[in-house]
Design goal:
The complex is a heterodimer. Chain A is α+β, with helices and mostly antiparallel strands. In chain A, 58% of the residues lie in helices and 14% in strands. The longest helix of chain A has 66 residues. Chain A is elongated and about 185 Å long. Chain B is of the alpha/beta class. Chain B has a single domain, classed as 3-Layer(aba) Sandwich (Rossmann fold). The longest helix of chain B has 18 residues. Classes of the chains: A alpha+beta, B alpha/beta. Chains A and B meet through helix 16, helix 21 and helix 25 of A and helix 2 and helix 3 of B.
Chain lengths: 904, 233
């Protein structure tokens, strides 16, 4: 019997070929999208992974002030760790763009050639592929840089410049302004020796050996002896000297103080000695006067021995007795000399005490000197080692950037695919139900003849399963074809500098394409059909329709047309639900692309509008005094986690009433003003706290949002500059950034980078151009899906109402009246549905969108202007009216004969 | 004559599948008459009804309703003709399943500027208590009465009934026939009833018997038997 029934399938397929073809194509479109998006992601992910073993991707890289010695390299290379120099010099090309010149690689981050060969002699180079593409350069062409003409022998890429940005602080790839060339060692050296170029950057890449870790390697480098005086960078040496000078100044001061205290002590020691002599002399003088007094007394017949203690008494007695004026004068003289000798004695004692004190002072200053030196050593511990920077491959945004970008696509694609598949299989089920209802009497007759439900169930799900399989197969084939993965991958290849990865055919995508659609179709249709086929044979023969299935709603309207339309809508709720579900899915798809377009445009517009300066100078070696006509600031870069990524946040210390930034941060070390980008992405509001991380110092900083300021360029936190200096332990007046309206005269050697407003405008606009193809593709696909689903479902509504339409024609209803009854009711469904779906889908997508851009440090202004909502609504309604117009033909084809068939 | 049918010919198919269903049918019906068109399956009776109702085009011939010729009218004009002149009753009722009884009747009420009173019609046809029910909740007789009400609401000049009792049991059939009789007497509606039931011809004014695409008998009943007394329905 099943064999016989199978013949029906072919005939049904033939008679409804257009409809089934549309369904197949719908599924194929969905699978194509999924295979394309997910497949492309897998190609990039697996390709990047495979590339690691082919190109020997580095485990990390570090840059140093002075090239490592052979001995140092040998020490680092223990345990099979591989170290290779990746020195580079930036040259200016003839068109003003920058070309980073490097030597051919030997062991790490090998060049992968798309075409040609490596440079073998002077005058040859391999050009980085994105730069070559943008400048329309090929093998055999020449490129001039630093006055040297290079013949391009090869075009390729390297894994350490997967995202070919000049500096880690660059937000976007700009291959029109930056590229890489790889030359022979001798060519490299020749250019270094014979032309005046910027300083060479001493970068080394490493691959870890047995038991070695990045941390251990880093420590080894830091432990190497380092003579900073040999560093070529005069500003570096100057900075160190300035720091050391300050230390030396303080040390000299303390040393002088110590010397002074010692001299004082010595001086007082000498003075003490002299005091002793003076005292002795004074005593001798007194004794001499005493002797004279004794002689005088002896001459007067008084034989008295005079001492210091008795002279006064004896002389007073003698004066009284003898009334000799000389004796009186002698006594007065003795008193005077005694007073003098006593005074000398006191002076001597005083000097002695001063000397002891000065000794204590000297000892104290000696202690002070010792401790101060220790303290100065601590404070001024520059810990000068040779390491400028150390970055592991995981933290290097240039490495595996393409893979990092697509990983979200893979997850989103799989989930979106599931949703789309369920929708399409539900659409198929609506057809099948309609078919069953049409054939209900036949099915009832078969049941009464003994046919089992499972046979019919199998029969009715066969076609949906076959259609789903066919759609999946077609979609998979197109998806894996150049029109699929390659086309979708073009946005990756047009942005990142990666080799053309080999196609991969992940097994799960085959399952997803070939097994999931028919399985989901089988399950959905089984569930839906099973109920229909579970009626009794008699009720099927009679084609009984339960009254409750028409939603017994008491309609009070006196307008017959309105009542009819509502009844029709209630009857066709299943098809209407499919249309609304289709609308929602299409809205979500189009919201992805519109959110992207709006965001990219906002980045472009807002970044420029919020940049009030013309020039921004970032110092490597800050000056003491601010340049004239410039506003200085203090910048630190911290980071904030975002899903699985870590994004940079610029912490900016501003002077009061900055003329270039709107923010007015309070004087506080933890109350900050955040920019609108941070507010939008992380939903931070005044009063909220958040934590930023300083990876280099391994410290966390927690801040409280005080206010939000408009400044769209990346993520920014604004602080009062003094508070920031205090927080980060910098001196008063320290600054490392300057903003101005005119170009400043700052020595280039002091600077990390100079960014102009024009640079910001260029980099902000990159995303608009890059994302435009994807935006258009997604919008087109979503509109197509919507129109097809709407056409199919509204077609089903008409098919199901064929008998009623035929009856109306018999009664004399005119075509426009029939349209009013059977089509115009859908206008209400679509209009209301769109009013609900547009904002709801926007809300859902706005909630999901941050996860789509988790790896990009930018704001998320995805607010639609009011006219965009109107535009979307307009497009939906126009689409509906177009479909409506097409369906009029379907109605016109229904003849009164439909009803007349219904007779014995 | 109210209805004049003159030498209608109608065929289907071509070449090997060509079949001439009506081979030149001529008849007429006066206004207010109930007329039965009887014949076996395949005799052409339904085809004749469809041609008169403007649902099928004739190959040749003439059909005039109250002097209005319908042969050669465009589909839009035929639609207007059905709207302005005709009412239809079908064997399997053909009620709109998702409209109530009242709403089903309103389907045709909408078409005319001068309908009969809906409440009166519901009362006359015994449908007042069922007016808010859906067809699935009604018996066969009730559904057919609803169909009759739908056809009558616009006060048609000519009521075309295609096997109106074909799906009903004898008792219900009798009730429907009594109703049709009452309608004819009350509203003077001219009726054409296609049936293969032999008994019905006894209650009508005129009998047309078709066989093999030609009218075999065409006569007026001199003695009508009321529907309530018909036997062997």
């Amino acid at each position: 019997m099943n064999q016989v029934l199978r013949k029906r399938l072919a005939r049904d397929l033939k008679s409804n070929f257009g409809r089934y073809l549309a369904l197949t194509m719908l599924i194929a479109l969905g699978i194509y999208m999924i295979v394309g998006i997910v497949g492309m992601s897998e190609v990039v992910l697996q390709g990047t992974e495979n590339q690691k073993s082919v190109t020997f991707v580095e485990d990390g890289q570090f840059s140093v002030f002075l090239p490592l010695s052979e001995k140092e390299i040998a020490e680092l290379s223990e345990n099979n760790t591989v170290i290779e120099s990746m020195f580079y010099t930036d040259l200016q090309a003839a068109d003003g763009s920058k070309l980073r010149m490097m030597k051919n690689r030997k062991q790490i981050d090998l060049i992968q050639l798309d075409e040609g060969r490596l440079a073998e002699t002077n005058g040859e180079c391999v050009l980085e592929k994105r730069y070559a593409a943008v400048h329309a350069l090929h093998c055999g062409d020449t490129v001039t840089a630093a006055g040297t003409e290079f013949t391009i022998t090869g075009i390729g890429s390297t894994p350490d410049y997967d995202q070919p940005i000049a500096a880690f602080s660059d937000v976007a790839v700009e291959s029109s302004h930056f590229g890489l060339i790889f030359v022979t060692e001798s060519q490299y050296q020749q250019i270094r020796d014979t032309t005046s170029q910027k300083a060479e950057e001493y970068v080394y890449a490493y691959r870890l050996g047995d038991g070695m870790t990045s941390d251990k390697l880093k420590q080894k480098i830091k432990d190497f002896d380092f003579d900073y005086t040999k560093v070529n960078d005069k500003y570096f040496r100057q900075t160190i000297d300035e720091i050391l000078d300050k230390k030396k100044e303080m040390q000299d001061g303390i040393r002088d103080l110590y010397s002074g205290s010692q001299e004082l002590s010595d001086g007082l020691a000498e003075l003490e000695n002299y005091g002793t002599d003076l005292k002795d002399a004074a005593d001798q003088l007194f004794d001499a006067y005493l002797k004279q007094a004794e002689s005088t007394l002896a001459a007067l017949g008084k034989d008295i021995t005079l001492t210091k203690e008795n002279y006064a008494q004896e002389l007073d007695k003698a004066v009284e007795e003898l009334d000799y004026r000389s004796l009186r004068e002698l006594k007065e003289a003795l008193d005077g000399v005694k007073a003098f000798a006593d005074g000398i004695g006191e002076y001597k004692d005083g000097v002695g005490e001063a000397y002891s004190g000065s000794q204590e002072l000297s000892d104290g200053v000696g202690e002070l000197k010792k401790e101060t030196n220790k303290l100065l050593d601590e404070i001024f511990e520059i810990d000068i080692d040779n390491l400028i920077s150390f970055i592991t491959a995981e933290d290097n945004i240039r490495i595996a950037a393409a893979a990092g970008d697509v990983i979200m696509n893979k997850n989103v694609g799989l989930i979106a695919g599931l949703v789309v598949l369920v929708l399409f299989t539900y659409v198929i089920s609506v057809f099948v139900i309609h078919q069953i209802e049409k054939e209900a009497p036949v099915i009832g007759a078969l049941y009464s003849l003994g046919v089992k439900k499972k046979d019919l169930l199998l029969h009715y799900i066969t076609l949906p399963v076959v259609i789903a399989f066919a759609g999946g197969l077609i979609g998979m084939i197109i998806g894996f074809s150049p029109a699929g993965i390659d086309t979708l991958a073009s946005s990756t290849y047009d942005y990142y500098s990666v080799p053309h990865f080999a196609m991969v055919y992940p097994a799960y995508l085959f399952i997803y394409s070939l097994i999931l659609p028919p399985v989901i179709s089988g399950i959905v249709n089984t569930i839906v059909i099973n109920k229909k086929l579970s009626q009794t044979a008699l009720s099927l023969i009679k084609n009984e329709q339960k009254a409750s299935s028409y939603r017994q709603v008491n309609l009070k309207s006196k307008n017959f047309i309105r009542v009819f339309q509502i009844r029709q809508m209630l009857r066709e709720y299943r098809s209407a639900a499919a249309v609304i579900a289709g609308m929602m899915v299409c809205m979500l798809l189009s919201d992805i692309s519109l959110d992207c377009a709006v965001m990219c445009q906002a980045v472009k517009t807002d970044n420029l509008a919020d940049t009030h300066y013309e020039y921004m100078y970032l110092y490597k070696y800050p000056e003491d005094t601010a340049p004239r006509n410039a506003e200085t600031a203090y910048l630190e870069t911290l980071s904030i986690p975002c899903f699985d990524y870590t994004l940079d946040v610029s912490v900016m210390g501003l002077n009061p009433n900055s003329r270039y930034f709107e923010a007015r941060p309070a004087k506080s070390k933890n109350k900050v003003v955040i920019n609108n980008s941070l507010h939008e992405r992380f939903k931070l509001n005044p009063g909220d706290t958040f934590t930023l991380n300083d990876a280099t110092g391994d410290m966390n900083y927690t801040f409280t949002v005080d206010a939000i300021a408009q400044y769209s360029v990346g993520f920014a936190v604004f602080m009062d500059i003094d508070s920031m200096r205090e927080l980060f332990g910098q001196e008063e007046d320290y600054f490392n950034a300057a903003y101005s309206d005119t170009a400043l005269d700052i020595d280039e050697g002091r600077l990390y980078a100079v960014t102009t407003k024009a640079d910001i405008e260029k980099s902000a606009g990159v995303f608009v151009d890059m994302m435009l193809p994807m935006v258009i593709t997604l919008l087109s696909i979503s509109l197509l899906i919507f129109c097809v689903v709407m056409y199919l479902m509204m077609g089903v509504m008409i098919d199901r109402s064929a008998s009623g339409i035929s009856l109306m024609k018999i009664f004399g209803y005119r075509p426009n009246e029939i349209r009013k009854l059977y089509l115009n009711g859908n206008t209400l469904i679509i209009a209301l549905g769109a009013l609900i779906c547009i904002p709801v889908s926007k809300m859902i997508m706005d909630a999901l969108y941050p996860s789509f851009i988790a790896n990009v440090a930018c704001g998320m202004n995805i607010r639609f202007p009011w006219y965009l909502y109107l535009g979307i609504y307009g497009v939906v309604m126009i689409g509906y009216f177009v479909i409506n117009f097409l369906l009029i033909g379907k109605i016109n084809k229904i003849t009164p004969a439909e009803v007349l068939k219904n007779r014995e | 004559m109210f209805l004049e049918v003159n030498n209608i010919k109608k065929s289907y198919g071509s070449d090997a599948s060509y079949i001439q269903v009506l081979k030149g049918v001529t008849t007429s019906v006066r206004q207010g008459q109930m007329c039965v068109i009887q014949g076996t399956s395949g005799s052409g009776k339904s085809t004749l009804l469809n041609c008169i109702g403007g649902l099928d085009t004739m190959d040749s011939g003439s059909v005039k309703i109250d002097g209005k010729e319908i042969f050669g009218l465009s589909p839009a004009a035929l639609s207007d003709y059905r709207r302005d002149y005709l009412g239809f009753i079908f064997q399997f009722y053909n009620l709109v399943p998702n409209l109530t009884v009242r709403e089903n009747i309103q389907v045709c009420q909408y078409l005319t500027g001068n309908p009969l009173d809906l409440e009166d019609l519901l009362e006359t046809l015994g449908l007042t208590e069922h007016q808010n029910k859906f067809p699935a909740q009604l018996s066969g007789g009730q559904q057919q009465r609803c169909a009759i009400a739908r056809a009558l609401i616009k006060n048609p000049r000519l009521l075309l009934c295609d096997e109106p009792t074909g799906a009903l049991d004898s008792k219900t059939s009798r009730d429907i026939l009594i109703l049709l009789e009452k309608v004819n007497q009350t509203y003077g509606t001219t009726m054409l009833i296609v049936t293969h039931n032999n008994s019905i011809k006894n209650m009508v004014h005129k009998v047309i018997i078709i066989k093999d695409g030609l009218i075999k008998q065409d006569y007026e009943n001199s003695a009508l038997i009321p529907a309530a007394e018909l036997e062997d329905l």
